[in-house]
Predict the 3D structure of the following.
Amino acid sequence: MMEPSEKLKQFSTYAFAEVDKAKDEAKRKGFRIIDFGVGDPTDSLFEGAVKGLQEGVKKHAGSGYPSYIGMKEFRTAVSEWLRKRFGVDANPETQITATAGAKEAIFHFPFTFIDAGDAVLMPSIGYPPYKAGTVFAGGIPNYYELKEENNFLPDLNEVEKILKSNKIKIIWMNYPHNPTTVMANKKFFKSILELAKKYNVIIASDEAYTEMYDKEKPHSILEFTDDWDNIIAFHSLSKRSNATGLRIGFAAGGENIIKNYRILRTQIDSGVANAVQEAAIAAWKDEKHVENMRQAYNKRREIMTNALKNMGIKYWAEATFYIWAKVSNSIEFSKKLLQLDQKRRIGINITPGRMLALNNAENADKYVRFALVPSLEDTKLAADLIREHLV
């Protein structure tokens, strides 16, 4: 039997095996599972995007391969949205490029600048492609710890020590943060920018959740300086418009970074389908459906956090559509929830924090993540089950 590469072996799914086994066992026993595990929206795609997709198929029926960097109309729509949302001016000709969602964009970005042996700094708890992209590009992952006592923000003194002693080329950051939900303030953004300039490091900012909040609007790294020479920000339509199936997003940043990232992308794919870009244009031009999305998640967030609060469980739910809750053991807690109501055969699936650790899994093992994607009715039922059985 042919063995997979050593790099691929590093990303085997063993960390999920125990919970997956418990989930399969619950299903065999006839349990209906209310799934707060994977962060995949179940609400409908924005109708305007559906119409844009349908019309785009006809409009581009004979267009051939799409542009590697995205249609000019797409990049212009993104530029206008960035100006309205964050008050920044990104040149659609030189500072924006289309991506097939955020995941592949984040995974591939290190290939643009990383040589074998270069180091990339990333959070100890976070999105797996930060690490996977680094490793497959031949880089060495380094980590800054996200700790509860620092509200899951990097300790900037620790960050500077790492920058001093390692050949760091890229710093990954993600606020609002998956999975801890916390937002970064203006002071933090300005401080991290100063450090990145001081040590000549690229800041790669994953901003997939900036549109998922209650009252306080999250920031973009692009807001805090006019010098984007070492900055790139990644955005996606997936969460903003319930468009995980479309696979469309963009990257915006300094001209040199975008120029080289565009060159890389010509070696990876043939661009995002024009019809999908038409759907995205419609979505980025409309804010009403985004506000409706926020209201829907806010209702679910309130229901679940009230249940956790009633049970004395500490949690974080600042932004995103996640809840980060503190428990004694994430694996055991998750397994317990899968068969929570024995009489009615109903269970709840969540993600153990250990599975979201890029480093120091023991620290993450004290937490679990709820993704607020089930229907309102199922969310209410899950909250009732937690009140009834978590004693």
Remarks:
- The first strand starts at residue 32 and ends at 35.
- The two ends are 49 Å apart (CA to CA).
- Residues 6-44+289-389 form a domain with the Aspartate Aminotransferase, domain 1 fold (CATH 3.90.1150.10).
- The mean pLDDT is 94.
